[in-house]
Amino acid sequence: PKMKEDHCLHAALLCLGVLCYSHGLTTERLNHSRPSLHGHHEKGKEGQVLHRSKRGWVWNQFFVIEEYTGPDPVLVGRLHSDIDSGDGNIKYILSGEGAGIIFVIDDKSGNIHATKTLDREERAQYTLTAQAVDRNTNRPLEPPSEFIVKVQDINDNPPEFLHENYHANVPERSNVGTSVIQVTASDADDPTYGNSAKLVYSILEGQPYFSVEAQTGIIRTALPNMDREAKEEYHVVIQAKDMGGHMGGLSGTTKVTITLTDVNDNPPKFPQSVYQMSVSEAAVPGEEVGRVKAKDPDIGENGLVAYSIIDGDGMDMFEITTDYETQEGVVKLKKTLDYETKKSYSLKVEAANVHIDPKFISNGPFKDTVTVKIAVEDADEPPVFLKPSYIFEVQENAASGTVVGKVHAKDPDAANSAIRYSIDRHTDLERYFVINAEDGNIKTIKALDREEMAWHNISVFAVEVHKQHQEAKVPVAIKVVDVNDNAPKFAAAYEAFVCENARSNQQFITISADDKDDSANGPRFIFSLPPEIIHNPNFTLRDNR
């Protein structure tokens, strides 16, 4: 009976509010960790005797629930030595982490109390040292013994997401189940105890477009063929709930803004089948005639459109370029137009996407065509001479009123206005010529002398009768044709010398003459001796023409 009494361990572990599970666990731990009061001998292997040191402490790992808010201090547990006979001579001393501040011990009974509310998330356990001493002499009666007070978790922390707001992108028309983004929440409660930190994700807003994986927080698309052009942005609310998502668990939420990014799933489309344009015949090549625009609801490079002329009777007269800033096709004039020749043109214009996504090729063709009709407008044009220049001839010394030639101009406009002619007097200061204002006949008004001026270069104006500002100008060159109206003249007064006894047929002088007329009038000169000396036997003349 004495040995049985000696081995009875008196220990009390009182943890207020601890579940039976904890109590059972504590009991199990007590049963496995209680030391014996009195040492005893065990026969070891090979006959050796092992001495187990005597120990009188009864202690264990203590637990105290966090966030206790009762009126009295929490009894954590009781330390008791089996050498304590209850006469009050033993004094219990507590030291270590939080001793005297958080944890206090009744030095007589060994009861340990927690005087402050504990928070496991701030500190999960405390290491303390207990010792029994003689109350009168403070002499240690037992070696110091270390024990741990663990703060037991309760579900007092809701899950918190890393970010209050998330932003994510996913291509439009993505397949169902396409991963969009993963949101992650954390729970400060003890993940090793119960389900306080076991999180389950769910979607509160954003269905039926998106779903979330309960265990991972991965958001995925839930509907096929979501169209950016119909709706571009979605607001999703995700909840993380602890206690495995069961009733009573704490929860936290986050907002996720999901934007559908564009893909080229729409072809360009002209809003009308025919465009009507007009251009003046006076327009110069390179001038803009008009613009066409095919609408493509896609954006960025997916909405880029290039324009081209693929058919029509105006392919040679017009061209089209692409204005990539406005996404318009710019029709421009390529060649000069003539209203009187052709009054209208037709073009077939094609608009095609620059970048095509092979995934959506079945949505094609990614192009459209439109007809462009261009009307040529009649411009008020100046008169036009039938020739760019005129060359006439008239004989010198011709009588006044001799017709030199005729110029002719006409009004190219449909009105075909009457024309009046005049000579630019700056080009005929001597007034040799006159022109008939109505028919354009040019005549002389004084005799012309080729030897004074062989060519006359004048300019003739043509103006419309009712529109004096519309005028044209043409150069007229008049050649004065030579007639033989000038006698030859000797070049100089000649004097010659000849030696006596000169040989017969010896040349001793050459005589030349000048004539103002044109050499085209036949041989230049005929030389001969005058009749009075033609029979002189001393001299002869040889005509060299």
From TrEMBL:
GO terms for biological process: adherens junction organization; calcium-dependent cell-cell adhesion via plasma membrane cell adhesion molecules; cell migration; cell morphogenesis; cell-cell adhesion mediated by cadherin; cell-cell junction assembly; homophilic cell adhesion via plasma membrane adhesion molecules. Pfam families: Cadherin. Residues 81-161, 162-270, 271-385, 386-490 form the Cadherin domain. One of its GO terms (cellular component) is adherens junction. CDD domains: Cadherin_repeat. SUPFAM superfamilies: Cadherin-like (SSF49313). Keywords: Calcium, Cell adhesion, Cell membrane, Glycoprotein, Membrane, Metal-binding, Repeat, Signal, Transmembrane, Transmembrane helix. It is a single-pass type I membrane protein. One of its GO terms (molecular function) is cadherin binding. InterPro entries: Cadherin, Cadherin-like_dom, Cadherin-like_sf, Cadherin_CS. Residues 1-24 form the signal peptide. The keyword Membrane applies. It is found in: Cell membrane. This is CAD11 protein. It comes from Irena cyanogastra. The lineage of its organism: Eukaryota, Metazoa, Chordata, Craniata, Vertebrata.
